[in-house]
Amino acid sequence: MIAQILADKCNNCAQCVNVCPTFVLDDGPQVPVIARLDACQTCYMCELHCNQDAIFVAPDQFAPEPSADPLPHLGMIRRDHGWDRPGEAGHLDEYRKLGPLLGEGAEIAARRYQAQRRSV
Amino acid sequence: METDVLIIGGGMAAGWAAIAAAQAGARVVVADKGYMGTSGVTAMGGPNHWWVAPDPARRKEAIARQSGKAQGLGDPEWMARILDLTWRYLPSLAPHYPFGSDGAGGTYYSGVRGSEYMRALRLAALEAGVTVLDHHPALELLRDDEGRIAGARGHALRTRQDWEIRSHATILATGGNAFRSGLIGSHTNTGDGQLMAAEAGVALSGMEFGPSWSISPAWASTRTLPYTGAVYYDADGRELDIPPSRAAGHAHNRALGHEMLAGTVLADLSHAPAALRPILRQIQPFTPAPFERRGIDLFRDRFPVKLFGEGTIRGTGGLDLADAECRTSAPGLFAIGDAATRELVAGANSGGGAVNSAWALSSGRVAGAAAARESLKRKSFSAPVHGLGRIAIAPLSAHRAIEASAIHRAVDHAIHGYAHVFTRDEASYAASGERLEAIWGELSAHGQATGAALVSLRETAALVAGARWTIAAARGRKESRGLHQRADYPEASGPTQRQLVSGLETVRIHSQQAEFA
Ligand SMILES: Cc1cc2nc3c(=O)[nH]c(=O)nc-3n(C[C@H](O)[C@H](O)[C@H](O)COP(=O)(O)OP(=O)(O)OC[C@H]3O[C@@H](n4cnc5c(N)ncnc54)[C@H](O)[C@@H]3O)c2cc1C
Ligand code: SF4
Ligand code: SF4
After folding, report:
1. Residues of A in contact with B136 (CB under 8 A)
2. Mapping DSSP to helix (H, G, I), strand (E, B) and coil, where does residue B306 land?
3. Which of A52, A66, B155, B223 is 20 to 30 A from residue B258's alpha carbon, by CA?
């Protein structure tokens, strides 16, 4: 669930209020207000869309974690996506491997299961 | 507000419909409950589209294979149509979506990352002149005196104002029903479109084909890419006997569910393909976050897991369609994407994995174009309209507070609870059905709200309605076929029947011979 909006980074642009799919946030005087935490679906979309890296979503989907430490993680999801360089050729070049890797994992499990059956 | 085409919902199906309708010359409004670009399961997923080159032999073979999976319930003509439309239109997003390399000097189109995909669809829709209204959940459909669906009413969350939009054609693109299971990205997927359409008399099909689940860390639903090779342990470190993920029927999930009822199940992902580790962050940036933020190395440490139900999203069920342009039985009303039935292309099996997104794109394209054509023939908005919403708006007796969270838990349990779903029989369906009838009766008698509270209460009603149709349809199909598995009727019994389910105060089942068998 969303845990913090860091006042020293936020410029109150309200983009997070706008993009949150479940309308968790309200406009606030200095920074947006986390108004409906129970509706947060822990989707990280507010983080992805915050160009000030001012939002931290804590990992637990079922319980608030107000004391989790945001610092090592700020902006990571946005950088990993290459979100600010949508036109840049190549940043989705590994994407085609997703399907084959899913398949490879399934085969690993199937082979292991077979081998265990045989040894029983 | 008035428009030619109103699209309710703003996921991938809506995006493709909006672009098609605007390109055909219609004024188009998209109203989404959340934000078009982040809400719905498309945005959090990585839709891999069914993708077969237009070579007649390869297409024929792909359709034959898919028809086999559909077990007599798929329509080969629809399959051919979605293969064709997907192949033609997906690359048209190139100005807005940075398609990557296919590793062989070409472009990789079929699989796209949800957040960039939805950003691209939003941009393309805006560029085509579509009006996008975010945080504008629809609450009920409007019908005019000629009996035609003529728009919708809803509530704008940010301005706290009710809205009414009159339209010549209306498209439901509200997605599937995840029954509030906590599935990634699905909080707004409560089946509202199915409820609204049912109030206009539209039936549903394929509702019995489910459920399915995705495995995730116990504290958060994520994508399942790193799990396919996983080894599972109990809390004492004993390796569990779990059939592989692609084992027949529900064997994998049944074994996992059984162990989870007994205690904590831990996953060990150290057997995942070696090539995955270095690039997981690049291809699925949302997947590592829930681990890193807990200080867990997902490829080394064991961690507790849970199964998150996928409702109708990777099931098959949805609004039944009357023709090949996605019209419903209610004049002026279309349904697309996960809001509609996917029985036509997935039959008795899940369309997840490729067919569902090809369906969402294609049903969006055809409905968008048809709705534009139909709406441009109509000129004025003179006929008076009335709202069709009843449940949570006009209770049958005195208003009383409704305990929504208990209802949501009961609904998720009825559909996904592994204590009973793997051993379903007549008695078990009857018990679930009775519980849901009691909940519906209470909502129907006493549920009432306005504004944002009405949005939530209508969601609750839609969750319950969807669960009632699901249980009734599953109970009605006295055989096992595809995703629908019963302990008391373990075999498929020919001939292949399609089954429609309809009604709100009273749920009805209607079977018909499948035409494509
Ligand atoms: C984790 C995951 C992975 C998947 N992977 C694949 C895959 O690889 N291949 C594949 O083919 N399929 C896949 N699927 C299925 C595929 O993602 C869906 O079929 C597709 O995204 C459906 O698109 P949609 O537009 O119909 O629904 P959604 O994207 O869910 O959009 C529905 C929209 O309607 C809005 N809405 C709901 N109620 C209202 C209301 N009352 N008023 C206004 N708006 C409303 C919601 O906010 C949401 O934005 C996957 C699904 C999941 C969950
Ligand atoms: S998007 Fe970021 S900078 Fe803008 S208001 Fe939200 S937290 Fe502040
Ligand atoms: S994590 Fe998702 S649901 Fe929660 S506040 Fe951010 S955008 Fe909203």
Report:
1. none
2. strand
3. B223
